[in-house]
Predict the 3D structure of the following.
Amino acid sequence: MPYFISGVTADHQNLIARTPAQFKSMNDIDVKTRHRVMAIDPAGHTVTVRDLQTGHEYLEGYTRLLISTGAEAFVPPSRARSWRACSLFAGSPTPCE
C-alpha cells in the first residue's frame, strides 16, 4: 500500500502478488472472488456458497479451507474528516466529507 500512496506505482494491480489464475496454476488453489460462504459443514467438508453476481447457491467440497473475510473501511468521528487530503484505503481514494 505505501508504494501506491507514495506514487511509486500508479497501478494498484502491480501490488497483487498473484492472480486467481496464478494461484490455480501454481498451487492448485481455487480463489473465489465475489462469493460468500453461507454455511460451513466441517463434518462433511463442504461449504454452501453464494455467487454474489448471480445469486446462485451451491455446495463446494474442500480438503483444506482458508477463509478470507474482506473488509470495509471504518472512519471514526474526527475533525480530520473535513481535511481535503483525507482518503480511504478501500477502493479508489474518496475524500472524507
